[in-house]
Amino acid sequence: MPTQPMLVREAGTAADPQTREVELQRRPLTRPEAAEVMAQIRRSPKITGYSTAEWTGRRDTFVLVDLTSGELLGALLTHHLAGNWCEIAVVFVLEAHRGRGYGRLLLGGALRTLAPSRKRQLLFFSAEGAMETMVRSAGFEVFPDEDSFVRGRPGRSIYLRSIYKAQWLSNIYRIREMRRKRRELDCSFTFKVALLETKKEPSK
């Protein structure tokens, strides 16, 4: 699914004075890129994990690259779901490139590209601070937990706790990673829920 590349001229910082021209691309990760992203995610207690197959073509993915060096700066993975829903499943900036606003570029660019689908965007996250600020700035409504998200909305409750869970857990790698992280990293996997509703086209 091609998309118009997004070019951004990005100024350096005191810690990293290099000026970069970065591009957002809608494409699968290469196997080496996927291996590096997955290795770093394996160390994170905040993300459950997605498999090589998902990063390299089974899911809809966006990458942010340095055009000069070709280096991968970050990656975003989306999970297209039944019922006109789409989950922004992972917004991940590689450890060496954090603190420069790349997560905001990834999320904003992906949302603009996905907007014509008219799907409701769902996003789960556990980290407060920068992540919450970023999703709120992108227009998401944030709920403190799943119970708050479904309260008074029986349709949401049925969808989230049956259809969504069945689709999301239909992956052996993810189940294994969740078990490993609970055991080795003491993860609780308690998430806030963010929702970006589809905006209807104005009537003519």
Tell me what you see in this structure.
The chain is α+β, with helices and mostly antiparallel strands and 204 residues long. It has a single domain, classed as Aminopeptidase (3-Layer(aba) Sandwich). Helices cover 36% and strands 25% of the residues. It is built from seven helices and eight strands, in the order ββααβββαβαβαααβ. It has helices spanning 31-42, 52-58, 102-114, 130-137, 146-150, 154-168, 172-184; strands at 6-10, 20-26, 60-66, 72-81, 85-93, 120-125, 141-143, 192-196. Strands 1-2-3-4-5-6-8-7 form an eight-stranded mixed beta sheet, with helices on both faces. A hairpin with a 3-residue loop joins β4 (72-81) and β5 (85-93). The two termini are 30 Å apart.
Keywords for this entry:
204 residues; alpha+beta; Aminopeptidase; 8-stranded mixed beta sheet; 7 helices; 8 strands; globular
Task: Give a nutshell description of this structure.
By secondary structure, the protein is an alpha+beta fold. It has seven helices and eight strands.
Low-confidence stretches: none
What is the beta-strand fraction?
A: 25-35%
Give the neighbour order of strands across the main sheet.
1-2-3-4-5-6-8-7
- Helix content range: 25-40%
| Architecture (CATH level 2) name | 3-Layer(aba) Sandwich
**Largest sheet descriptor:** 8 strands, mixed
